[in-house]
Amino acid sequence: MVSDPNIATCPDYSAPEFEESRNIFASESCPQQDAVNILRRLWQSNNDRDRRLWQQHLDAEAVCTVDRLRQKDEEEAATAAQELLERQERDKFIPIPDRPPPTTLLIIPSPFATRCLIEAKHLGLWHFTNQGLEHAKNTTTHVNPDALLAEGPGPRPGQGPHTMEDLSIAVPRLIEAIQDYHWPEDCVKNYIEFFDGIFSHPYRSSPNPIEVQALIRYQAKQRINWHRAITIKRGAWNLGIISEPTLATLKEQAFFDHRTNFSLLPVI
Question: Which domain of life is it from (predicted)?
Fold first, then answer.
C-alpha cells in the first residue's frame, strides 16, 4: 500500500466507463442503479479494510521510529561518555608505540602548556626554553580536561633570560609541538611564516640591543593579540607580515625602558 486510503474517494460508478462493472450485477431483478449501489458498498468495504491496514502500518512505523531514536540517543550518550572519559583520563588511552628508548633530549612541556597546545591557545615561548622545560620536570599538576590549570611551584613564565638565543632554541620546539598537536594548517603556516620573518629581520642581528629587544617584544605581543583576535568578529590577520609601525613603537618603548632603568627583557 503506497497511498493513504483515508484521502481516497469513491468513483462514480454510474459513469459510462463503469458500464462493464455494473453489468456484472445488473439483471432484470437488479436494475442499473442497484448495481451502482452494490459497487459503491464494495468499494467502501475495501476502503475500510485498507484504512485499518494503513493505520496498522503507521503504528508499526511509529514504534520502529521510536526504537531507532532511542537507540541513536543511547549510542550518542555512550559515545559522549567515552569521549569524556578519554579527555579526563587522556594518559590511559594514549597508544604506546613499539620503539626503542629515545637517545635525544625529550621535549615534554608542562601540563599547562600541554593544555594550551590541545586547545590551540596562545602559549609563551618560555615553556619551550631550557628553563621552562626544566621547570616542567618538577610540575606535578595533572591536566584537567575542562580547564587550564595553574602551574606547580617554581619559577614563573617571564623569569630568566630572554634573548635571541632563547628564541632560536624555543621556536623550533614550539613549531614541532603545534604540528604534533594537529593545529589547523593555516595556524601552523602563519606561525612558520611569522618566525621566519622574525629571524630574517635586520633587527635580529643588529648591534643595537634596543632593536633586538624590540623584535623580541614584537613577537610576544603580536602572537598574543593574534590569538585573541581569532575569536572576535573581524578575526585575525596574516601573522607572517611584519608590522614595521608596530615594531617601531615597541622600539621606542624599549628605548624608554632602557633610559628609565627598566629591564629590557620581555615575557616571551
Answer: Eukaryota
